[in-house]
Amino acid sequence: MISWKIAYANKIVTAEEALSHIKKGQTIFVGSGAGEPRLLTDALANQATRFWDIELIHLTSAGASRLTDPNLGNNFRYNTFYIGRGLRDAVAAGTADYTPMNISELPGAMASGIVEIDIALIQVSVPDAFGLCSLGVSVDATKAAVENASLVVAQVNENMPVTIGDSMIPVENIDYLVEGKAQLIELPPFELDPISLTIGRHISSLIDDGMCLHFDRGPISAATMRYLDTKRDLGIHTDILTDDILRLLKSRSVSNRKKKINKGKTVATMVLGSRELYETVNANPFIEILPIDQVSDPFIIAQNDNMVVVQTIQEIEVTGLARAERRGVSDIRGLPASMDFINGASRSKGGFTILAMPSTTRDGQQSRIVAMSLGGGVAFVRSSVHFVVTEYGFVNLYGRSLRERAIALISIAHPKFRQQLLEEAKRLNYVDKDLMIPSEKGCIYPHHYEFYHTFKDDLRVFFRPAKPTDAKEMQRMFYRLSPNSVRMRYHGTIKTLSRSDAQRLAHVDYSQDMAIVGLVGPRYNQTIIAEARYMYNPSNNMGEFDIVIDEKYQGRGIGTFLANHLNKIAFSRNLNGVYAEVIAQNGATIALLNKAWPTAQIFFDGGSCAFIVRFPDEDVRKSKDSIVIYSGRFSDYSYGEEHPFHPDRARVALQLMKQQGYLDEPWIRVEEPRMVGKERLIESHNPKYIEALEEANSGEWKERFLEFHLGNEDCPVFPGLFDYVLLYTSATITAVDLITNDNANVVFNLLGGFHHASRSFAAGFCYVNDVLVAIDIFLSRGFRVAYVDIDAHHGNGVQDAYYGDDRVLVISLHQTGKNLYPWSGFETEIGEGIGRGFTVNIPLPDETDDEAFEMVFDRIVPSALEKFSPSVVIAVVGADMHKSDPMANLNLTNNGMVYAIKKIRDCSRHLLLLAAGGYDLQATTRAWARMWAAANRIDALPDYLLVIGGRFREEAGRQHGDIADMNYQVSGKKKEEIIHELNRIAEFHELKTLPRIGSSSINPDVLKHGVQ
Predict the structure, then answer these.
(1) For the purposes of burial, counting CB atoms within 10 Å of the CB of 476, is it exposed (0-12), middle (13-18) or buried (19 or more)?
(2) CA dihedral in degrees (921, 923, 929, 931; nearest 10)?
(3) What pLDDT is recorded for position 1?
(4) Pick from 163, 575, 651, 678: most CB atoms within 10 A?
(5) What is the pLDDT of residue 851?
(6) Is 756 annotated in the active site?
(7) Which residue, 406, 477, 401, is CA-closest to 435?
(8) CB of 885 within 8 A of CB of 879?
(9) Contact 579/611 with Cβ under 8 angstroms?
């Protein structure tokens, strides 16, 4: 121990002294990424005139280097094996070199002298008790450089973490030590745009529990990880450990226990991101940082089963030739180990590669899917391409012919380029000359119709809309049918299904027709076992139904299930109904339809039998779309660990809604927020306040923020604050647009309802008041707005904004302001001026239970809504009314909250739900899931949408499983006092406010928006 300490002391020199040993014409390896010894490279730049023809070998640069200055071209020239952001411009300008190489081979090339290293400039940790220093965040090729360099100079940095794995080098192996404490290079997270998030959501659907993952460092990979938190037992074996992977580790989706090598360990070769990330890897026994020839060796990678590689590309030909860059060196995004990992995944049992990209260039003017590429640089050979993903979906190219690949890739191109791509593919003889595709509107794939269902004998079937890539599988299923099944299904008219006929069946015009297929098997090799479709008949606005089930899978209820599901899709699309004509001898199909459509009219005519299901006229006219607004970015922000408000509630709520099947109905889907600019916030808020919020985005508090109530315990200043408020407000504006422009029925923003904020300052955990923004937009578009707030805390910000406005009915049920923030919302606050009577406050006494809440709700709210006749109801659905919530003192269960939503839905033409308060995570997310189900009448679907004795009827009767609360009632004197007080409040409103509601200056009969 003493000997290494003496050696250490003898090796300490200044940076200038250490660099004085460098000779002209030598090759210097510079530590990678955040492991770059900036103290040494800065000193090198300062002494530039002393050196001549120095080659700098660099694996990757995390930041700009002074050594790339063109004026130093005769002194230094970089040669990099991965073009990171620090060297991209230099390589493009020709002042730095790029050497393509499979990165796993670099250590071997150094050892053999193919890549000569004279000097290694590295950064290490302070030595441990045994005289070992850690390479910390940059092991990669750095360890090989140390082992093969003639001279090793190390910056010793107290901030360099000690990483587990194979990162240690003895002090004896270092020639000179330069002590220099400095912060490691940090890289900010990627900005995640809606397209990247949509692509990430598609990719996440391809990733199953237990898979082992490699991600490149890009926004699509970062977005994908936002949607993997519901997975289990994932493994990580990747080159660069990032903050996004750290986020995934924190979600507990990663256990690494399914890995065959490095079991239980997250493996990487480099760490690059934030200070929090660097602190996390320090002495972490569950994270191993290994040399790159161990991490990126395809044969090592392949030892893990189900290895999945997510890689961003820039362009792909319709034949499947993919490129990492489109034009030249300046566009290279860098591939430090991509080919190694792709080769490894192809050898892995169950492994595959996912190549992802937006469908167009950023300006939307060019398709990234092309008939023939003009790009250069790194390309992925056609045989190694598996899944390709854009925002329009994914296709599997593995084992596909050139014709099939062209059809597949055209189906996920931007719709405005598909016809052009088809014509080019025909010209190149990739596809048949007679191939036709639906119109631009009709070829947009409806992802929200995808789902799994389990049938008898644990048969798990994946259902989705038919895709153009299904032609061959449809053909195969046809030829598996017996002659009798073919005669019954096709009325005896066909004996063969040609390739072109199958292709026509697979190209569905989604704007009017629908075909759903059922598949079994792994995602990369699925077999179609069922198909049901309806063809739209414009003469009666109905769908003509047909179905075929592989005989091997008949008798398990698949046909009944599909018939009912197509029925629901037709209902959701405002058709008048569905009908089917069946050969009279086809007893199996007749029995199937009798069970699936119990309310159908049945007619016999000669040798055929007709089933007709007609939907009630009032239901046909209603808008159907129900949409949850959610982004993987909702969990990106934190008020602080000790703060009671956690935006991550939204993620947990969505997860629960999925688990309960509350997103399975065909009229329900999840959408990303469409981002707006700060100008939209300024339209509803004080410009100076919005500017202060934007300035607070850095997370640094300033004294002038006190003017806007920013930086206190309720409304702290934190990094990304303005990004956060812009995100949740954009989500609410997206919801408004879906209602006003797309006639959506119910929309729920799971991160909304910030009802305390003023137009000029923050309050009560709320910064920008998205409710005000929503109401202002609705009013500007001619909507008549009712606002119903059932949060425990009074929505004072909304009340104050519309206190003198008769265009908005403001109803608030909340715990009394006598002893709860914001100490307002008494029944006597009823508005002023022309708005007098249009503010209705129902302050609930402490300990109010469901029974008392429902009583006063029934006496006031339905009558008020009926009198006001709103075009839209905005409901803030705070779950802090729950009896377990730590921030209030009420005794409601989620049964009372659901009761209120059922009443509100029956009084609304359109319903916008905003999440608001709730500080008991389990109670809050259960309440929101049940309120969403109630808003969509999942508990009360009409008989013509239910299977008698089947799945749908069964689910409707199971009372929401274990997420419904036990009933709870207050009793005795306390209950009497509560009832007496609420009766008094109800009588007050029946006298003072209800007679005035409806006397607004606006005549609801002249409103065109939102009227059915």
Answers:
(1) middle
(2) -130
(3) 53
(4) 163
(5) 97
(6) yes
(7) 406
(8) yes
(9) yes
Q: How far apart are CA 267 and CA 245, in angstroms?
A: 11
Q: How many other CB atoms are found less than 10 A from the CB of residue 574? A: 15
DSSP code at position 895: H
pLDDT of 137 higher than 70 = yes
Pairwise CA distance, residues 822 & 756, whole Å: 8
Tell me how far CA of residue 950 lies from CA of 563, 589, 613, in angstroms.
12, 17, 18
Nearest CA among 22, 246, 249, 19 for reference residue 137: 246
pLDDT reading at 150 higher than 80: yes
pLDDT at residue 825 in the model: 97
Within 8 A by CB and 6+ apart from 107, the residues are 141, 143, 144, 291, 292, 293
Tokens of 276: 């929090």
SS3 (DSSP) at 961: helix
E strand intervals along 700-770: 746-749
User: Quick one: what percent of the chain has pLDDT higher than 70?
Assistant: 92
Rounded CA separation 156/123 (Å): 6
Selected catalytic residue, list 756, 910, 960, 989: 756
Helix (H, G, I), strand (E, B) or coil at 507: coil
Please write down the HEC assignment for all residues of 771-799: HHHHHHHHHHCCCCEEEEECCCCCCHHHH
Least reliable range by pLDDT among 361-365, 417-421, 770-774, 959-963: 959-963
Taking 50 as the threshold, does the pLDDT of residue 595 lie above it? Answer: yes
CA distance 791 to 797: 13
Residues in the chain: 1012
- The predicted model gives 892-916 an average pLDDT of 95
Q: Are the C-beta atoms of 797 and 825 separated by less than 8 Å?
A: no
1012 pLDDT tier (thresholds 50, 70, 90): very low
- Cα(454)–Cα(881) distance, integer angstroms: 37
In DSSP notation, 586-608 reads: -HHHHHHHHHH-TT-EEEEETTE
Closest CA to 99 of 73, 119, 78, 126: 78
- Which has the higher per-residue pLDDT, 64 or 741? 741
What is the percent of the chain with per-residue pLDDT over 90, rounded to a whole number? 78
Say what the pLDDT of residue 84 is.
58
Q: Measure the CA–CA gap between 648 and 653, rounded to whole angstroms.
A: 9
* Interstrand relation of 393-396 and 387-390 (parallel, antiparallel or unpaired): antiparallel
Query: Is the per-residue pLDDT at 950 higher than 60?
Result: no
DSSP designation for 26? -
CA distance 256 to 695: 41
pLDDT computed for residue 611 by the predictor: 95
User: CA separation (Å) from 653 to 230, 570, 592, 939?
Assistant: 12, 29, 37, 18
